[in-house]
Predict the structure of Collagenase.
Amino acid sequence: MDKVELLAPAGNLEKLKIAINYGADAVYGGTSTFSLRIRSGKEFDLDSFKAGIDYAHERGKKVYVTINGFPFNSQLKLYENHLAKMRELGPDAFIVSSPGVIRMARKVAPEIPIHLSTQANVMNAMDAAVYYDMGVRRIIAAREISLKDCEAIKKELPDLELEIFVHGSMCFAYSGRCLISALQTGRVPNRGSCANDCRFPYEIYAHNPESGTTFKLEEETEIGTYIMNAKDMNLASHIDEILSSGVIDSLKIEGRTKSPYYVATVTRAYRQAIDDYYAGVFEAERYQKELHTTQNRGFTDAYLISRPFERHDTQSQGFTIQEGTHQVAALVGEEGTTWRCKDKTCVGDRLEIVLPVGATLQEVENEYGKVELGEEGKWWLTIKKIVALSGKEFECIHSGDLNDIILPTKFPGYTILRRDIREARAKKGLTPEPQAIQRREEKY
Protein backbone atom coordinates (compact mmCIF):
# COMPACT_ATOMS: atom_id res chain seq x y z
CA MET A 1 0.00 0.00 0.00
CA ASP A 2 1.19 3.54 -0.76
CA LYS A 3 1.89 5.97 2.07
CA VAL A 4 -1.34 7.41 3.48
CA GLU A 5 -2.36 10.89 2.32
CA LEU A 6 -2.67 13.77 4.80
CA LEU A 7 -5.56 16.04 3.75
CA ALA A 8 -5.89 19.50 5.33
CA PRO A 9 -8.51 22.28 5.12
CA ALA A 10 -8.02 25.32 2.87
CA GLY A 11 -10.41 28.07 3.98
CA ASN A 12 -8.67 30.72 1.90
CA LEU A 13 -5.50 31.14 -0.16
CA GLU A 14 -3.29 31.92 2.84
CA LYS A 15 -4.51 28.87 4.76
CA LEU A 16 -4.07 26.71 1.65
CA LYS A 17 -0.42 27.75 1.47
CA ILE A 18 0.06 27.26 5.21
CA ALA A 19 -1.41 23.75 5.07
CA ILE A 20 0.97 22.77 2.29
CA ASN A 21 3.99 24.32 4.02
CA TYR A 22 3.14 22.50 7.25
CA GLY A 23 2.99 19.06 5.68
CA ALA A 24 -0.30 18.43 3.86
CA ASP A 25 -0.23 16.13 0.82
CA ALA A 26 -3.54 17.57 -0.35
CA VAL A 27 -6.03 20.27 0.62
CA TYR A 28 -9.76 20.73 0.17
CA GLY A 29 -11.80 23.88 -0.29
CA GLY A 30 -14.29 25.57 -2.54
CA THR A 31 -16.00 28.68 -3.78
CA SER A 32 -19.62 29.81 -3.66
CA THR A 33 -22.59 28.55 -1.68
CA PHE A 34 -22.42 25.11 -3.29
CA SER A 35 -19.75 24.20 -0.75
CA LEU A 36 -20.91 23.21 2.74
CA ARG A 37 -18.92 26.04 4.32
CA ILE A 38 -20.46 29.23 2.95
CA ARG A 39 -18.15 31.49 4.97
CA SER A 40 -14.94 29.90 3.71
CA GLY A 41 -16.42 29.56 0.21
CA LYS A 42 -16.75 33.35 0.08
CA GLU A 43 -13.05 33.76 0.89
CA PHE A 44 -12.12 32.21 -2.46
CA ASP A 45 -13.02 33.61 -5.85
CA LEU A 46 -12.17 31.89 -9.13
CA ASP A 47 -8.85 33.70 -9.48
CA SER A 48 -7.60 33.03 -5.95
CA PHE A 49 -8.78 29.42 -6.06
CA LYS A 50 -6.96 28.92 -9.35
CA ALA A 51 -3.87 30.50 -7.77
CA GLY A 52 -4.18 27.98 -4.92
CA ILE A 53 -4.46 25.04 -7.29
CA ASP A 54 -1.41 26.23 -9.22
CA TYR A 55 0.54 26.75 -5.96
CA ALA A 56 -0.28 23.20 -4.86
CA HIS A 57 0.49 21.58 -8.20
CA GLU A 58 3.85 23.37 -8.45
CA ARG A 59 4.78 21.60 -5.20
CA GLY A 60 3.41 18.20 -6.16
CA LYS A 61 0.31 18.54 -3.94
CA LYS A 62 -3.38 18.06 -4.73
CA VAL A 63 -6.53 20.17 -4.38
CA TYR A 64 -10.02 18.70 -4.00
CA VAL A 65 -13.02 20.97 -4.70
CA THR A 66 -15.96 20.88 -2.30
CA ILE A 67 -19.28 20.93 -4.18
CA ASN A 68 -21.11 18.97 -1.51
CA GLY A 69 -24.32 20.90 -0.98
CA PHE A 70 -27.76 19.47 -1.80
CA PRO A 71 -29.39 21.40 -4.66
CA PHE A 72 -32.97 22.62 -5.01
CA ASN A 73 -34.64 22.22 -8.40
CA SER A 74 -34.07 25.91 -9.04
CA GLN A 75 -30.31 25.44 -8.58
CA LEU A 76 -29.67 22.56 -10.97
CA LYS A 77 -28.48 24.73 -13.86
CA LEU A 78 -26.35 26.77 -11.44
CA TYR A 79 -24.69 23.58 -10.22
CA GLU A 80 -23.97 22.49 -13.78
CA ASN A 81 -22.40 25.85 -14.58
CA HIS A 82 -20.36 25.75 -11.38
CA LEU A 83 -19.03 22.27 -12.18
CA ALA A 84 -17.95 23.51 -15.60
CA LYS A 85 -16.13 26.48 -14.06
CA MET A 86 -14.36 24.25 -11.54
CA ARG A 87 -13.36 21.82 -14.29
CA GLU A 88 -11.51 24.63 -16.08
CA LEU A 89 -9.35 25.24 -12.99
CA GLY A 90 -7.89 21.71 -13.16
CA PRO A 91 -8.51 20.37 -9.63
CA ASP A 92 -7.64 16.81 -8.64
CA ALA A 93 -11.17 15.75 -7.58
CA PHE A 94 -14.70 16.94 -6.88
CA ILE A 95 -16.17 16.26 -3.44
CA VAL A 96 -19.94 15.80 -3.83
CA SER A 97 -22.84 14.47 -1.76
CA SER A 98 -25.88 14.11 -4.01
CA PRO A 99 -26.30 11.14 -6.38
CA GLY A 100 -27.71 13.57 -8.94
CA VAL A 101 -24.64 15.80 -8.71
CA ILE A 102 -22.44 12.72 -9.16
CA ARG A 103 -24.17 11.98 -12.46
CA MET A 104 -24.00 15.64 -13.44
CA ALA A 105 -20.27 15.80 -12.64
CA ARG A 106 -19.52 12.72 -14.72
CA LYS A 107 -21.32 14.36 -17.65
CA VAL A 108 -19.76 17.82 -17.28
CA ALA A 109 -16.25 16.80 -16.23
CA PRO A 110 -15.70 13.08 -16.88
CA GLU A 111 -11.94 13.45 -16.46
CA ILE A 112 -12.20 14.73 -12.83
CA PRO A 113 -12.31 11.97 -10.16
CA ILE A 114 -15.29 12.02 -7.80
CA HIS A 115 -14.97 11.77 -4.01
CA LEU A 116 -18.16 11.13 -2.04
CA SER A 117 -18.68 13.58 0.83
CA THR A 118 -19.16 12.41 4.41
CA GLN A 119 -22.62 14.01 4.12
CA ALA A 120 -23.71 10.92 2.19
CA ASN A 121 -23.24 8.93 5.44
CA VAL A 122 -21.69 5.76 3.99
CA MET A 123 -21.31 3.17 6.75
CA ASN A 124 -21.26 -0.20 4.96
CA ALA A 125 -20.02 -2.09 1.92
CA MET A 126 -23.47 -2.26 0.31
CA ASP A 127 -23.88 1.52 0.10
CA ALA A 128 -20.23 1.94 -0.86
CA ALA A 129 -20.73 -0.46 -3.78
CA VAL A 130 -23.69 1.56 -5.08
CA TYR A 131 -21.64 4.74 -5.21
CA TYR A 132 -18.62 2.90 -6.62
CA ASP A 133 -20.80 1.62 -9.48
CA MET A 134 -21.90 5.22 -10.11
CA GLY A 135 -18.28 6.24 -10.68
CA VAL A 136 -17.14 7.36 -7.22
CA ARG A 137 -13.45 6.57 -6.68
CA ARG A 138 -13.12 7.63 -3.05
CA ILE A 139 -15.56 7.64 -0.15
CA ILE A 140 -15.17 10.00 2.78
CA ALA A 141 -16.71 7.81 5.43
CA ALA A 142 -19.20 9.04 8.00
CA ARG A 143 -17.57 10.19 11.24
CA GLU A 144 -19.54 7.50 13.06
CA ILE A 145 -17.93 4.62 11.15
CA SER A 146 -15.70 2.07 12.87
CA LEU A 147 -12.31 0.87 11.68
CA LYS A 148 -13.74 -2.65 11.43
CA ASP A 149 -16.42 -1.39 9.03
CA CYS A 150 -13.72 0.32 6.96
CA GLU A 151 -11.90 -2.99 6.77
CA ALA A 152 -15.10 -4.71 5.61
CA ILE A 153 -15.66 -2.10 2.87
CA LYS A 154 -12.07 -2.39 1.65
CA LYS A 155 -12.28 -6.18 1.56
CA GLU A 156 -15.39 -5.96 -0.61
CA LEU A 157 -14.11 -3.08 -2.79
CA PRO A 158 -10.29 -3.12 -2.77
CA ASP A 159 -10.00 -0.49 -5.53
CA LEU A 160 -12.22 2.01 -3.71
CA GLU A 161 -10.24 4.63 -1.77
CA LEU A 162 -11.31 5.31 1.83
CA GLU A 163 -10.89 8.65 3.57
CA ILE A 164 -11.65 9.24 7.25
CA PHE A 165 -11.70 12.26 9.54
CA VAL A 166 -9.04 12.17 12.24
CA HIS A 167 -9.30 15.65 13.79
CA GLY A 168 -11.68 18.57 14.21
CA SER A 169 -15.21 19.54 15.17
CA MET A 170 -17.80 16.84 15.73
CA CYS A 171 -21.46 17.36 14.91
CA PHE A 172 -24.14 16.86 17.55
CA ALA A 173 -26.23 15.09 14.92
CA TYR A 174 -25.41 12.21 12.60
CA SER A 175 -22.72 13.60 10.27
CA GLY A 176 -24.49 16.92 9.86
CA ARG A 177 -28.06 15.62 9.56
CA CYS A 178 -29.34 18.32 11.89
CA LEU A 179 -32.29 20.73 11.77
CA ILE A 180 -31.72 22.66 15.01
CA SER A 181 -30.11 25.60 13.23
CA ALA A 182 -32.80 25.61 10.55
CA LEU A 183 -35.53 25.56 13.22
CA GLN A 184 -34.10 28.35 15.38
CA THR A 185 -32.47 30.69 12.88
CA GLY A 186 -33.51 29.54 9.41
CA ARG A 187 -29.89 28.68 8.59
CA VAL A 188 -29.73 25.23 6.98
CA PRO A 189 -26.76 23.04 8.01
CA ASN A 190 -26.82 20.90 4.88
CA ARG A 191 -26.59 24.00 2.71
CA GLY A 192 -23.51 25.33 4.44
CA SER A 193 -24.95 27.94 6.80
CA CYS A 194 -25.17 26.14 10.17
CA ALA A 195 -25.42 28.61 13.08
CA ASN A 196 -23.88 26.07 15.50
CA ASP A 197 -26.86 26.26 17.86
CA CYS A 198 -25.67 23.06 19.53
CA ARG A 199 -22.68 24.99 20.95
CA PHE A 200 -24.80 27.23 23.23
CA PRO A 201 -25.95 26.66 26.83
CA TYR A 202 -29.64 25.82 27.27
CA GLU A 203 -32.11 26.13 30.12
CA ILE A 204 -34.44 23.14 30.54
CA TYR A 205 -38.08 23.40 31.66
CA ALA A 206 -40.85 20.93 32.48
CA HIS A 207 -44.38 22.02 31.58
CA ASN A 208 -47.65 20.55 32.85
CA PRO A 209 -50.32 21.26 30.18
CA GLU A 210 -53.15 20.33 32.61
CA SER A 211 -52.32 23.00 35.15
CA GLY A 212 -50.35 25.35 32.93
CA THR A 213 -47.46 25.16 35.40
CA THR A 214 -43.86 25.38 34.18
CA PHE A 215 -40.83 24.41 36.27
CA LYS A 216 -37.22 25.22 35.50
CA LEU A 217 -35.00 22.17 35.91
CA GLU A 218 -31.77 22.97 37.74
CA GLU A 219 -28.59 21.26 36.61
CA GLU A 220 -26.14 19.76 39.07
CA THR A 221 -23.37 22.10 40.18
CA GLU A 222 -20.46 22.27 37.72
CA ILE A 223 -22.18 19.90 35.25
CA GLY A 224 -23.22 22.71 32.92
CA THR A 225 -25.98 23.13 30.34
CA TYR A 226 -24.10 22.84 27.04
CA ILE A 227 -26.18 19.72 26.59
CA MET A 228 -25.58 19.31 22.84
CA ASN A 229 -21.95 20.46 22.65
CA ALA A 230 -19.82 17.67 21.17
CA LYS A 231 -16.12 17.49 21.97
CA ASP A 232 -13.59 17.76 19.15
CA MET A 233 -12.27 14.63 17.46
CA ASN A 234 -8.60 13.84 18.09
CA LEU A 235 -7.29 10.52 16.76
CA ALA A 236 -3.57 11.33 16.86
CA SER A 237 -2.90 8.67 19.48
CA HIS A 238 -4.46 6.03 17.19
CA ILE A 239 -2.64 6.85 13.95
CA ASP A 240 -0.43 3.77 14.34
CA GLU A 241 -3.48 1.53 14.74
CA ILE A 242 -5.26 3.16 11.79
CA LEU A 243 -2.31 2.86 9.45
CA SER A 244 -1.54 -0.69 10.56
CA SER A 245 -5.00 -1.70 9.33
CA GLY A 246 -3.81 -0.99 5.77
CA VAL A 247 -7.30 0.04 4.60
CA ILE A 248 -7.25 3.85 4.89
CA ASP A 249 -6.00 5.93 1.98
CA SER A 250 -6.43 9.45 3.36
CA LEU A 251 -6.55 11.11 6.80
CA LYS A 252 -8.66 14.26 6.86
CA ILE A 253 -8.45 17.27 9.17
CA GLU A 254 -11.66 19.32 9.63
CA GLY A 255 -11.52 23.10 9.86
CA ARG A 256 -11.87 25.36 6.82
CA THR A 257 -13.21 28.21 8.99
CA LYS A 258 -10.57 27.81 11.70
CA SER A 259 -7.47 29.94 12.21
CA PRO A 260 -4.17 29.78 10.31
CA TYR A 261 -2.54 28.66 13.57
CA TYR A 262 -4.94 25.72 13.85
CA VAL A 263 -4.27 24.69 10.25
CA ALA A 264 -0.50 24.90 10.72
CA THR A 265 -0.25 23.20 14.10
CA VAL A 266 -2.70 20.37 13.49
CA THR A 267 -1.33 19.61 10.02
CA ARG A 268 2.23 19.60 11.36
CA ALA A 269 1.33 17.28 14.26
CA TYR A 270 -0.35 14.71 12.02
CA ARG A 271 2.46 14.97 9.46
CA GLN A 272 4.90 14.05 12.23
CA ALA A 273 2.66 11.23 13.48
CA ILE A 274 2.40 9.71 10.00
CA ASP A 275 6.10 10.02 9.25
CA ASP A 276 7.04 8.64 12.67
CA TYR A 277 4.78 5.62 12.13
CA TYR A 278 6.51 4.72 8.88
CA ALA A 279 9.91 5.31 10.53
CA GLY A 280 8.99 3.02 13.43
CA VAL A 281 9.26 5.74 16.10
CA PHE A 282 5.58 6.57 16.78
CA GLU A 283 5.15 8.52 20.03
CA ALA A 284 1.58 9.72 20.73
CA GLU A 285 2.50 12.09 23.55
CA ARG A 286 4.56 14.30 21.20
CA TYR A 287 1.64 14.92 18.83
CA GLN A 288 -0.90 15.42 21.62
CA LYS A 289 1.26 18.08 23.24
CA GLU A 290 1.15 20.13 20.04
CA LEU A 291 -2.55 19.54 19.39
CA HIS A 292 -3.39 20.74 22.89
CA THR A 293 -1.83 24.13 22.08
CA THR A 294 -4.90 24.91 19.95
CA GLN A 295 -8.31 26.07 21.13
CA ASN A 296 -10.68 23.13 21.52
CA ARG A 297 -13.94 21.93 23.03
CA GLY A 298 -12.19 19.15 24.87
CA PHE A 299 -10.94 16.14 22.93
CA THR A 300 -12.41 12.70 22.28
CA ASP A 301 -11.23 9.81 20.14
CA ALA A 302 -14.85 9.56 18.97
CA TYR A 303 -16.15 6.40 17.32
CA LEU A 304 -13.58 4.94 14.94
CA ILE A 305 -12.00 2.69 17.57
CA SER A 306 -14.98 2.37 19.98
CA ARG A 307 -18.65 2.08 19.07
CA PRO A 308 -20.92 5.07 19.90
CA PHE A 309 -22.77 3.28 22.71
CA GLU A 310 -19.42 2.57 24.40
CA ARG A 311 -18.46 6.24 24.55
CA HIS A 312 -18.97 8.38 27.64
CA ASP A 313 -16.58 11.24 26.92
CA THR A 314 -17.93 12.85 23.75
CA GLN A 315 -19.70 15.89 25.26
CA SER A 316 -18.40 19.14 26.77
CA GLN A 317 -21.33 20.18 28.95
CA GLY A 318 -19.52 22.84 30.97
CA PHE A 319 -18.16 25.09 28.21
CA THR A 320 -18.40 25.74 24.47
CA ILE A 321 -14.66 26.15 23.82
CA GLN A 322 -11.47 26.48 25.83
CA GLU A 323 -8.08 28.04 25.23
CA GLY A 324 -5.19 25.83 24.25
CA THR A 325 -1.90 25.85 26.11
CA HIS A 326 -0.45 28.50 23.76
CA GLN A 327 -1.42 31.78 22.09
CA VAL A 328 -0.26 32.95 18.68
CA ALA A 329 1.76 36.16 18.97
CA ALA A 330 2.58 36.73 15.31
CA LEU A 331 2.56 35.22 11.84
CA VAL A 332 5.53 35.65 9.51
CA GLY A 333 4.64 36.72 5.97
CA GLU A 334 5.11 34.54 2.91
CA GLU A 335 8.33 36.36 1.96
CA GLY A 336 9.85 35.64 5.41
CA THR A 337 11.22 39.12 6.16
CA THR A 338 8.43 40.57 8.34
CA TRP A 339 5.76 39.54 10.85
CA ARG A 340 2.27 40.77 11.73
CA CYS A 341 0.96 40.92 15.28
CA LYS A 342 -1.77 38.51 16.41
CA ASP A 343 -1.46 39.16 20.18
CA LYS A 344 0.06 42.05 22.18
CA THR A 345 3.83 41.88 21.79
CA CYS A 346 6.47 44.16 23.34
CA VAL A 347 10.18 44.84 23.22
CA GLY A 348 11.89 42.24 25.40
CA ASP A 349 9.36 39.47 24.74
CA ARG A 350 10.74 35.99 24.11
CA LEU A 351 8.62 34.01 21.66
CA GLU A 352 8.74 30.38 20.58
CA ILE A 353 9.33 29.90 16.86
CA VAL A 354 7.21 27.23 15.13
CA LEU A 355 8.70 26.34 11.74
CA PRO A 356 7.01 24.80 8.69
CA VAL A 357 7.84 21.16 8.00
CA GLY A 358 11.42 20.70 6.82
CA ALA A 359 12.38 24.35 7.38
CA THR A 360 15.54 25.45 9.22
CA LEU A 361 16.95 28.60 10.83
CA GLN A 362 20.34 30.02 11.72
CA GLU A 363 21.17 31.59 15.08
CA VAL A 364 21.66 35.35 14.81
CA GLU A 365 21.64 38.46 16.99
CA ASN A 366 21.37 42.09 15.87
CA GLU A 367 19.53 45.31 16.70
CA TYR A 368 16.11 43.77 15.88
CA GLY A 369 16.40 40.65 17.97
CA LYS A 370 18.06 37.40 18.89
CA VAL A 371 17.27 34.03 17.27
CA GLU A 372 18.56 31.03 19.23
CA LEU A 373 18.13 27.27 19.53
CA GLY A 374 17.08 26.37 23.08
CA GLU A 375 16.23 23.29 25.08
CA GLU A 376 14.31 20.39 23.54
CA GLY A 377 15.31 21.60 20.07
CA LYS A 378 12.96 24.61 20.20
CA TRP A 379 13.79 27.88 18.45
CA TRP A 380 13.24 31.21 20.22
CA LEU A 381 13.09 34.86 19.19
CA THR A 382 13.86 37.60 21.71
CA ILE A 383 12.57 40.93 20.41
CA LYS A 384 14.92 43.91 20.80
CA LYS A 385 13.22 46.36 18.46
CA ILE A 386 9.75 46.57 16.93
CA VAL A 387 10.24 48.53 13.71
CA ALA A 388 7.78 48.55 10.80
CA LEU A 389 8.76 48.69 7.15
CA SER A 390 7.41 52.25 7.19
CA GLY A 391 10.07 53.15 9.75
CA LYS A 392 7.61 53.58 12.60
CA GLU A 393 8.90 52.16 15.90
CA PHE A 394 6.83 50.66 18.73
CA GLU A 395 7.43 49.75 22.34
CA CYS A 396 4.44 47.38 22.13
CA ILE A 397 2.22 46.39 19.21
CA HIS A 398 -1.31 45.04 19.48
CA SER A 399 -3.43 42.42 17.74
CA GLY A 400 -5.00 43.67 14.53
CA ASP A 401 -2.22 46.16 13.75
CA LEU A 402 -1.44 45.80 10.04
CA ASN A 403 2.12 47.09 10.16
CA ASP A 404 4.71 44.65 8.81
CA ILE A 405 7.44 44.35 11.45
CA ILE A 406 11.06 43.71 10.43
CA LEU A 407 12.62 40.39 11.50
CA PRO A 408 16.27 40.10 12.59
CA THR A 409 16.88 37.59 9.80
CA LYS A 410 14.97 35.89 6.99
CA PHE A 411 12.56 33.26 8.32
CA PRO A 412 10.77 30.51 6.38
CA GLY A 413 7.48 31.86 5.04
CA TYR A 414 4.47 31.41 7.34
CA THR A 415 6.59 30.72 10.42
CA ILE A 416 4.51 31.13 13.60
CA LEU A 417 5.58 32.96 16.76
CA ARG A 418 3.76 31.92 19.94
CA ARG A 419 3.83 32.15 23.75
CA ASP A 420 2.45 30.17 26.70
CA ILE A 421 -1.22 30.96 27.34
CA ARG A 422 -0.47 31.95 30.94
CA GLU A 423 1.94 34.60 29.73
CA ALA A 424 -0.57 35.78 27.12
CA ARG A 425 -3.33 36.13 29.70
CA ALA A 426 -1.03 37.94 32.11
CA LYS A 427 -0.23 40.52 29.41
CA LYS A 428 -3.96 41.22 29.19
CA GLY A 429 -4.33 41.44 32.97
CA LEU A 430 -6.37 38.22 33.09
CA THR A 431 -6.09 35.34 35.54
CA PRO A 432 -3.83 32.52 34.26
CA GLU A 433 -6.47 29.79 34.88
CA PRO A 434 -3.86 27.20 35.94
CA GLN A 435 -6.53 24.57 36.69
CA ALA A 436 -7.85 24.59 33.12
CA ILE A 437 -4.33 24.21 31.79
CA GLN A 438 -3.63 21.41 34.24
CA ARG A 439 -6.72 19.51 33.10
CA ARG A 440 -5.39 19.49 29.57
CA GLU A 441 -1.85 18.52 30.57
CA GLU A 442 -3.14 15.56 32.59
CA LYS A 443 -4.28 13.94 29.33
CA TYR A 444 -0.69 13.53 28.13
In short: The mean pLDDT is 88. The two ends are 31 Å apart (CA to CA). Residues 260-279 form the longest helix (20 residues).
